[in-house]
Amino acid sequence: MRSLSYVLLSAFLVVLAGCATVVGGTTQSVALKTQPDGASCVLEREGVVIVTVRATPETVEIERASSPIRMVCSKARHLDASRVVLSGFEGFAAGDLVFGGLVGIVIDASSGAANRYPSEISVMLPPANFDSQAERDTFFDILKADAEYRGGQAHDAATADALCCKNPEGQDCVALLGEIENGRVQEQTLLEEQRLSATIGDQV
Length: 204
Fold this sequence. Notes:
The chain has 204 residues and is of the alpha+beta class.
């Protein structure tokens, strides 16, 4: 039986993202990681695959842009998982703020530079099978509680940022808060779908 420490480790290793150190130019390095290692992943932007990785971890070069990128990963005996990453918001003062598990948002603009992605993106792939229903439910309950907490952090940081303090009814602030709420709802929905997709014991 998997230990509770494995459950906790999986829950809290969803993402550790830092600022990219690129000062200029049109590309940047991004480290792609998964929990566990050895997953195959693709990066998509505007519906187009821009990077393919056969086995994580791996560092890739991508073109900087304002459009979000989506990291989609798969591994044998695990459920597929993905993460949506936003480019940096200029002037965002909350530091590196992580929100999202299977699908979510990473806001990384503490350096004040737009069109910059996090220097590291990590995706956690849940096991496809658990020894018991209790083990499965505990695993996903931890993930859902963590996601809800990070969603609240993201919302509080966004409303305290200069972007929303200056004009809380402005289009940019409303769009940012909408992205955060959309990511929160999507993550909770997908975590529940993942929970129901996972099998128990010898169940097929």
